[in-house]
């Protein structure tokens, strides 16, 4: 992220360094006292999460740091989201419904939570069904919720198998054509997308939002 002022850089640094107390105090000050743009603060959080993700991949951070990062993001989100200005009538009209969950065998949720969050603030109705979601739960939830897009998340390579199995089950249930499927998390690329049978993959939350907007005919 370019053009960050000193305060914004400080927030990204404290968040990515796991300095929870200072980071939350600063984000509250920016949002509640200084009237900072909540979308900007959320972008700073995303920039910090990118750093956290890299440190995790490089073995500098482990699961406890990922969990703490997710908790900090959640706390800031609860303050920032109500401050995002809705234009008249915007609240009622959602762009479409997205069901998202981490596939069975995988307990990672940070990336999924960021995607849910970004979709939510971009005008989608999101239902997050959690982590380690069995195939039959996906099918039940899809039948109940009737989503336009289904997001399958997974960080571990074994999740690719689960994604393939989940999408194959949608086929055998005869529901595959009713929605678009995007996958994300970890080392996902075009080869994995083909293997699992998904419609597209997103390398980050911004891309996931673009995909949903494109599929649902909203201007990106």
Give an account of the 3D structure.
With 220 residues, this protein is α/β, with parallel strands linked by helices. The protein contains 9 helices and 5 strands; from the N terminus they run ααααβαβαβαβαβα. The mean pLDDT is 89. Helix 1 (6-16) runs antiparallel to helix 2, helix 4 (63-80) runs parallel beside helix 5 and helix 5 crosses helix 9. The longest helix is centred in the N-terminal third of the chain and has 20 residues, at 38-57. The two termini are 20 Å apart. The chain folds into 2 domains: 6-83, Orthogonal Bundle (Methyltransferase, Methionine Synthase (B12-binding Domains), Chain A, domain 1), CATH 1.10.1240; 97-215, Rossmann fold (3-Layer(aba) Sandwich). The protein has a 5-stranded parallel beta sheet with strand order 2-1-3-4-5, sandwiched between helices. The chain has helices at 6-16, 20-33, 38-57, 63-80, 110-121, 135-145, 158-172, 190-196, 205-215, and strands at 97-102, 125-128, 149-153, 180-184, 200-202.
Task: List its traits.
alpha/beta, Methyltransferase, Methionine Synthase (B12-binding Domains), Chain A, domain 1, Rossmann fold, 2 domains
Name of the CATH class of the largest domain: Alpha Beta
- Largest sheet features: 5 strands, parallel
Mean pLDDT: 89
Task: Spell out the helices and strands N to C.
Answer: HHHHEHEHEHEHEH
Helix content: 40-55%
Tell me the count of domains: 2
Kindly name the structural category: alpha/beta
The geometry reads as globular
Q: Which fold name fills CATH's third level, the topology of the largest domain?
A: Rossmann fold
Q: Return Rg in Å.
A: 18 Å
Order of strands across the biggest sheet? 2-1-3-4-5
Uncertain runs with pLDDT below 50, 5 residues or more?
none
Taking the alpha carbons of the first and last residues, their distance comes to: 20 Å
Please provide the count of β strands.
Answer: 5
Q: What portion of residues belong to β-strands?
A: 5-15%
CATH architecture of the largest domain: 3-Layer(aba) Sandwich
CATH H-level superfamily of the largest domain: Cobalamin-binding domain
Task: Enumerate how many helices there are, as a single number.
Answer: 9
